Amino acid sequence: LDLVADCASCAALCCVVPAFTRSADFAIDEPSGVPCPNLAEHGFGCTIHDRLTERGFRAAPVYDCFGAGQRVVQQHFGGSDWRSSPHLRVEMFAVFEVVERLHELLWYLRDATARDLPTPLAEEVDALCILVTGGGRRSPGGRRAASAAAGGSGARRGERTGPAGPGRCRAPRG
User: The pTM is what?
Assistant: First the structure.
């Protein structure tokens, strides 16, 4: 599972889904679900990308979805996007919120697996990796997006979500 953003394979979900409050790092209030006014009308590029910092959007160039955007667009919605398929908008945005959090959690778990930890803590980290990547049965209140977001199959409640084992969170070797 790649936890690196690939903006070219996304649909600018980071420019629409999160809510931002005007601050030193973000020039405007932007409610969740409202496209940033700097988002191009056609395509998903930023019209001021080369000037974000000077225009008061210091947080934008350092924002990281941990690869959640492209995973949602490409894997969960088969390459469809919220503009050309507006009927997917609500579900796509909700899935992105879950996937983004899971990918960030996996990033932290990967960091933990790279450390020299006492055995009990290392076993706990491995168990969390298995849970987050969908290696066990999900709770009755679980959402399909949660297991699929983290690398599981997206199976419906009560179904096995796929094989897992220690090291599911380990970063791919390059």
Answer: 0.78
